[in-house]
Amino acid sequence: MAESASQPHFGAPDDAGGGREGEITRRQFLTYTLMGTGGFMASMLLVPPLRMAVDPLLKAGEEKPFVPVADVNEITDEPKRFEFTLKINDAWVKNQATTYSAWVYKEGSEIVALSPICKHLGCTVNWNASPEHPNMFYCPCHGGLYTKDGINVPGTPPRAPLDLYEVKVEGGKLYLGPLIQRT
Amino acid sequence: MQRIYNWLDERLDLSPIWRDIADHEVPEHVNPAHHFSAFVYCFGGLTFFTIVIQILSGMFLTMYYTPDIVNAYNSVKYLQTEVAFGYIVRGMHHWGASVVIVMMFLHMLRVFFTGAYKKPREMNWVVGVLIFAVVLGLGFTGYLLPWDNKAYFATKVGLEIAETVPIVGPYVKSFLAGGDIVGAATLARFFAIHVFFLPGLLLLLLAIHFILIRRQGISGPL
Amino acid sequence: MAGERQDKASVKYVGDSRIPVRREKRLPKPYSEYPGKTEPFFPNFLLKEWMAAVVFLVGFMALVISHPAPLEPHAADPNDTTYTPMPDWYFLFLYQLLKYIPGSMIVLGTVIIPGIFSLLLLLAPWLDRSPERRPSRRPVATALMLFVVASIVVLTYQAVASHKAQQAEAAAATPPPPPPPAAEGAAFDPEQAFIASCASCHGQDLKGTPAAPSLVGLNLSVDEVVDIITNGRKGSMGVMPPGMFQGTDEQKKQLAEWVLSHQ
Predict the structure, then answer these.
(1) Considering its fold, how many domains does chain B have in total?
(2) B7 within some domain
(3) What CATH number is associated with residue C126?
(4) Owning domain of residue B55
């Protein structure tokens, strides 16, 4: 406020008759002190609220735990969709049950679990959903395509492969953990 | 900067407004640098300053606060305990509310005891009393928002008191409560009144207060 | 001011209704009527004001950081009957005022007295019309304001004191919830029972509090009072829950007699 408002004084001396150089310097000095004081007050008042407002950016995300999703013998070579729920803390809404899903199949002896979230704009992809593109993941929103291992098909909107879940097998059960991003 | 200012000034005629604010002479009897006792003339300015703090911290608090009986308390608690600096911003708003009342009361006493409300400044005194009422209303409505027992029961008692007013009392109570009990509707209403209606009114009254001060000048020394 | 900029002269909206060609300059109001020096608002005076504001702000932020705003450990529980309501401190004097006013005349405390003083405040410029400004030469206005300020201070102080006393009482009363177990054998003291079970709402002097009405001048029989103690009652100020006093029927009767004997 003080900055823009003080402008007319720099160019236009107030007393047209007087060549009182000292007065102008003093006035400018006062103006700068005023701006400093104002800046100090503004920073004192704005730093806590701004720090509070950007807190979500600086907070470390919660580590996702491994959760049991399916029996290993349910998993075949064909991708199959499994749903699982996870209790997450959404700010002050604690332990909110949220449903996630994964496309899971066997590649030889290894189990692959893909996130169904399209890397284009976050729609949900489906296996074998488009008759023109068999044996591919297809996103209905903008026609994004991924091969069976989740790699995006060049020429379609997505620009990265589908995320992978960390996979763990214990006691015949499949556990899924945090997501791994691929480029 | 100078050129931008000139361009705007040519079209909007800003200079007279700015000159009026910047160049008006302030007499020494209100200037604490001349007589320390003149600090009593600071209370009005400090009231305004605290109101600025209230508006600023309040705006940021609504980024987290949720006016809903299930989430209100939890969101305040989250903001207070889990958000970095959240307790400071809430503290600014909480203590600021008390400081505004104190400063405004001192300002009112200063104006009263220096007889500054006398002719020609009667209107501005009335505006000031209205500002006082609006700020008390802000205090009352804001007290409910954290939705803890203190807030809930104080509001309940406050509404019971409103109900005792002859004739209109029960209607005032139902209007403020938004129903028969202090509950979900009351909280939503108090939030709306606290965040939109009263601050709007307050800003309007403050603008009138300041314009009148510039029109009428500061009252002379005793 | 004398140095009018040249470019200003070049733009003239002659015959244009939007901006007049040139009007008289709005010069700052002169303060020549006051003795002593003056100084311009910007930047000289504003700097001093802002320095005062910095001192204030530093103190304020120190308060904010050292004293976090209070928040109770639980969300509001409308069914909590033990909670003693307390308004924010700046309404305490009004709250306390109600304690001195009998329930039947509550309008006096909620509307009439605060209304009269608010109106006096609002209309002060028209009630105190003499041009004299010194407080010492306006004895009525000064005395009235000092009286109001003193009353507010005293009432607020009393409200805080009585709230603290109530809380201490509640804290003392809660640990042994069913009054004294020893009371079975020992002599039953209705006064102690009243203080433990009833006084937090009805007041130690039986004259009532904002939570519950006065018990002075009841037009009830002993049996009716026993019935209220046992089953509660929906009264003018709210609901008295049943079973506030747990005791034998004989003890309830003694308590009722004690209450009715204090008129």
Answers:
(1) 1
(2) no
(3) 1.10.287
(4) 30-216
From the CA of B193, how many Å to the nearest CA of chain C?
18
Q: Which of C173, C199, C222 is the last residue of a domain?
A: C173
- The per-residue pLDDT for range A161-175, each reduced to its tens digit, is 999 999 888 888 899
* Chain B environment of C13 (Cβ under 8 Å): none
Comparing A3 with A52, the larger pLDDT belongs to: A52
With beta carbons under 8 A apart, name residues in chain C contacting A30: 43-44, 47
Residues C161 and C191 in one domain: no
CATH code of B148's domain: 1.20.810.10
Q: Is residue B102 part of a domain?
A: yes
Give me the phi and psi of A81, to 5 degrees please: -90, 130
Out of C173, C207, C235, pick the residue that ends a domain: C173
Mean pLDDT of B57-86: 94
**Domain span including residue C118:** 89-173
CA triple A161-A164-A170, angle to 5 deg: 160
Residues facing A80 on adjacent strands:
A104
> What domain count does chain C have?
2
Q: Could you tell me where the DSSP H helices lie in C67-189?
A: 92-99, 106-107, 113-122, 124-127, 139-173
Indicate the DSSP class of residue A14. Answer: S
Q: Residue range B163-184: average pLDDT?
A: 92
* Alpha-carbon gap: B60 to the closest alpha carbon of chain A (Å): 6
E strand or H helix that includes residue B151: helix B149-163
The answer to the question of residue C113 being in a domain is: yes
How far is Cα B198 from Cα B203, in angstroms, rounded to an integer?
A: 9
Paired tokens of C98: 């109600």
B18 located within any domain: no
DSSP C28: P
* Domain containing residue C234: CATH number: 1.10.760.10
Closest CA to C29 of B217, B209, B211, B118: B217
ipTM: 0.92
Interchain contact, C5 vs A5, CB within 8 Å? no
Please indicate, yes or no, if residue C11 is contained in any of the structural domains: no
Q: Confirm whether B132 is domain-assigned.
A: yes
What confidence category does residue A20 fall into, taking pLDDT thresholds of 50, 70 and 90? low
Residue C46 placed within a domain: no
pLDDT in tens, C48-98: 999 999 999 999 999 999 999 999 998 999 888 888 888 899 999 998 998
A38 closest CB neighbour out of C1, C44, C50: C50
Whole-structure pTM value: 0.76
Using DSSP's 3-state secondary structure scheme, residue B133 falls into helix
Contact partners, residue C213, CB within 8 Å, separation at least 6: C103, C202, C235, C236, C237
Interface partners of chain C (CB pairs < 8 Å, 3 or more) are: A, B
Among B18, B62, B66, the residue to mutate for chain A (most A Cβ within 10 A): B18
Strongest mean pLDDT among B20-24, C174-178, C196-200, C217-221: B20-24
Q: What SS3 class is residue C234?
A: strand
- CB distance B77–A92 less than 8 Å? yes
- Phi first, then psi, for residue A17 (nearest 5°) are -80, -30
- Inter-chain contact A52–B75, Cβ cutoff 8 Å? no
Q: How far apart, in whole angstroms, are the C-alpha atoms of residue C46 and residue C34? A: 20
Q: In this complex, is the C-beta atom of A12 within 8 Å of any C-beta atom belonging to chain C? A: yes
Among A57-61, B183-187, C163-167, which is the least confidently predicted range? A57-61
CB of A127 within 8 A of CB of A105? no
Tell whether C20 is covered by a domain.
Answer: no
Domain co-membership, C158 together with C193: no
CA distance B116 to B218: 8
